[in-house]
Amino acid sequence: MGKMRLNRSNGCWLDIYDAARFTGNSRRLHGPAEFPGLRIREKDWAETIASLSVGPGAYVQCYDLKNFDETVSWLLPNQVIEVVEELTLGERIDSIRLYDRPPFAHEAGYAAYMLWAASHLAKMKE
User: Which of 95, 112, 123, 125 is 20 to 30 A distant from 6 in Cα terms?
Assistant: First the structure.
């Protein structure tokens, strides 16, 4: 019988928690991958994601599956969100795409990415 090999991490992951400040139940989502209509709840999970941490090689596209254009927003590599409620995300976000690179100009959500990245960089310079 042959060996089963595991790939090394490319830094493309998202850690999610169902309580603020990285407490409660947690799960690591590995990418590149798409999680439409995010369904990972288990017996003890709360209704929402309350905090999250983006891996060093991950670009996270967040959106509502039924209303992509109006709800798409981005999280950037190494971004940590202690309290998701403090983010300016759309009213309802239920889907995530994990990229291991920034989006290309022809891909859905690129304009939102450029706005999100520009505002994030402006905040870092303050």
Answer: 95
